[in-house]
Amino acid sequence: MQGDHPTLEAVAAHAGVSRATVSRVVNGTAGVRPELRERVRRSVAELGYVPNIAARSLVTRRTGAVAVVIAEPETRIFTDPFFARQLRGIGRELAAHDLQLLLMLLEQRADYDRIGRYLTGGHVDGTLMFSLHNDDPLPAIATASGLPTVFGGRPGWAGADRQPDLLYVDTDNRDGARQAVAHLRERGRTRVAVITGPLDQTSAQDRLDGYLDALGLREPDPALLAHGDFTAEGGARAMAELLDRSPAPDAVFAGNDLMATGALRTLRERGLRVPDDVAVVGYDDLEPAAWADPPLTTVRQDVERMGELMASLLLRRLGRAPDPEGRDAEPPAPVITPARLIVRGSA
Amino acid sequence: MQGDHPTLEAVAAHAGVSRATVSRVVNGTAGVRPELRERVRRSVAELGYVPNIAARSLVTRRTGAVAVVIAEPETRIFTDPFFARQLRGIGRELAAHDLQLLLMLLEQRADYDRIGRYLTGGHVDGTLMFSLHNDDPLPAIATASGLPTVFGGRPGWAGADRQPDLLYVDTDNRDGARQAVAHLRERGRTRVAVITGPLDQTSAQDRLDGYLDALGLREPDPALLAHGDFTAEGGARAMAELLDRSPAPDAVFAGNDLMATGALRTLRERGLRVPDDVAVVGYDDLEPAAWADPPLTTVRQDVERMGELMASLLLRRLGRAPDPEGRDAEPPAPVITPARLIVRGSA
DNA sequence: GGCATGGATGAGAGCGCTCTCATGCCGTGC
DNA sequence: GCACGGCATGAGAGCGCTCTCATCCATGCC
C-alpha cells in the first residue's frame, strides 16, 4: 500500500490527458468536457490517486490545516469535558470542509514561543484559540502571526472590545445567570448568595453580572458574595465562608457546576438540607451534575454547537464560505449562543 | 508579519553562502565550519527565517505530523476526561520532538473512509489510535495504510495477539482489579459482586479477570455478576439487579467510576449505607470520584503518562529515538503501566 | 468561404526545499 | 615538491503540484 502513491503525472498518462486536466478534475475546476472528466475520474479511482498535499500547499500557499490552541492552566481540561465537547464540534465542522485539525496544548511559558513560531511560519491557514485569562499572551501571538483567528469565549484582555474584526463565539453567560437567579427568586428565596469564578475570565464576570441583573443590583451585597476558582474545592470553601456569615443565605448561585458540587459537599457536612434549607444552582450542566445528590439545577449551553460555530466562523473568514448561495455578503461577526436553565432537584 | 517569509535562498544570500550550507545548518547536519555555522545562525535569526514544511516534506517524504485517531462511539469522550488527559501526555511528548498532533475524531461510518484515505495518502508519519471496540475497523485501516501505529489500550480484535509487531500502551487492568477485590476481601467482605463494562473491550474483560483472580475463581458466580456499559445509568441498573437477588452482596466492584457512581445512587435510593451495608470500589479515579458521597475507593492509572508512552513508542518506531545514548537496540514493545488502589470512604 | 470568437486542452515554469555529486582546498606522506 | 585523501562547500536536479499562457478546434457570422 505504502510506496505506490501514483502522481498526477501517472493519472494523466493513464487517462491519456495532460497533468493540467487531471488537476482541474481533481480540484473541481470548471471547463473540462464531461466525458473527459469522467475518464479522469475513473483513472483516479483505478490508480487510487491521492493528491500530495505538501506539493499542493507548496504552490497554493494554503495548508488545509487549522490550529486549535488550548492554553490550559494546569488541570482545567481534566475535570471539565468542556474542551472535549468543543473539540468535537470543531472537528466535525472542519472535517466537513476537508480541513485538518492541528491540536496545540499549551502548558508552559516556553510553549508560547513554539506556538508563536509555528503560527508565524505559515503552517496553518487559521487558528481557533481558547484563551482563558485576560493576561494570556495568546491574543498577541495571534495578532502577530497575522492569521485569521476565532476565539472561544469572549476575549477580555484590555482593548479587546476596540478591535473591530475580532471574532469569537460565546454563550450568553449573563442571561444564563439571570435565568438561574430569577428561578431562585421565583421559588421564594430571598437571600440568594453567589459564588463567583475567577473574575479575570469574562465568563465568570458575565455570570456575576447576570446575577446582579436578576436581583436588580449594581453591586453585590458583600455578605452574599464569595469567590471561588471554578474548582470543587474552591466551591466548598466559598460555601463555608457564606455559611459562617449571618444571616445565612437560603440559596446559592455557583458560577459553575464544579463549585456547586463543592458547595453541596459543604452543605451536607453541615447537616443542611438541599434544597429545603439552601437551594443550589450551578452552571455548565456537566454530566456529573445530573448524578449529584440532589441532582443539580444548572444552566446548559450547547458546547458542541459552539465548537461548530467557531469553525464555521473561521471558515467564512478564510473565504471557504460554507454558504453555497454565496449570499453571505455581510462579514462574519461574533456569535452569542443562548443558555438554558435545567431544573432538577437542587433548586 | 505575514507575507515576508524569507526563503533558504534569502538566508543564503544574506550569509554569503550557498543554499545547501544553510540547509545543513538549519537541519543540524555535521560538516560545517563553526564560524560559518555561526554566521548562518545569525542570518536566520536576523531574517526570522522559518523553514517551509511543505517544501521540506515534499522532498523528504516525511510530514512531521502524527495523527491521533479517536473513535468515540457517541458520548464516551464527554463524560470521561480520559481522552483529554491522554491527549495531554501525547501532546507534550510530540511537541518535545517537534511533531505536530493531528486530531481526527470519528463519529460516523463515513468518517472511516475519510480517515482511511487520509492516512493512506501519506499525510502523516504515524498514528496513535484509540479503538474502543473489538469490531472497530480502525486496526484494519491502520494496517492498510502501512503507517507505524501505536494503540491506546490493548487491542482485542481477533488475531491481534498473533500480530508480531503490534504496539500498544495499556494499564494493568487485571492487576488493578485484583487489588480492588483483594481490598474488599481484606475488609471482611464475603459476597463481592462485580458490575462489568462491555466485554468486547479488553479493559472491561481484563478487569473482570482480575476480579476472578482475586476470588480464586475461573467463572463468575452468576448471582454476583451484572453487566453495565460503563455509564452511570448502566451502573445504577446493574446495582438494582444485584440487590434484587438473594442473598444480596455486601460489596461491589464496579468496572469503572461512572458505574460505581450509578451504583451509589441506587444504594442511596434503597436506603442502604455505604460502606456499612455494601462497600463499593470503582475504577479510573476520575475527578468526581473524590467528591462522591462517600468518596469513592477506586483504582488509579497514570493516564497522562500512558499518553506520553504512546507517543514515545511511536517516536521510536519512527526512528526518532528519544534515547540520546542510542542504545535502544531492542525494538519497541508494548507497555503495560501499573495500576494503584486509592482507598477512600466507600470501601 | 474566410475570419473572428470562445471554450477546451496542453506545455512549461516554478513553489522552497533536500540531497547527491562535483569541485576546491587543505594537510599529509613519500 | 608532488600526489593523494579527506573535508568543507557549491551547483543543480527534482520532489508533485498549480496556474498562466499559448494552442487548437469548432462554431457563428459576414
TrEMBL record, chains A, B:
GO terms for molecular function: DNA binding. InterPro entries: HTH_LacI, LacI/GalR-like_sensor, Lambda_DNA-bd_dom_sf, Peripla_BP_I. The keyword DNA-binding applies. It comes from the Bacteria. Residues 6-60 form the HTH lacI-type domain. Pfam families: LacI (PF00356), Peripla_BP_3 (PF13377). Keywords: DNA-binding, Transcription, Transcription regulation. PROSITE patterns: HTH_LACI_2. The keyword Lyase does not apply. Transmembrane segments: none annotated. Coiled coil: none annotated. PANTHER family: HTH-TYPE TRANSCRIPTIONAL REGULATOR GALS (PTHR30146:SF109), LACI-RELATED TRANSCRIPTIONAL REPRESSOR (PTHR30146). This is LacI family DNA-binding transcriptional regulator. It comes from Streptomyces litchfieldiae.
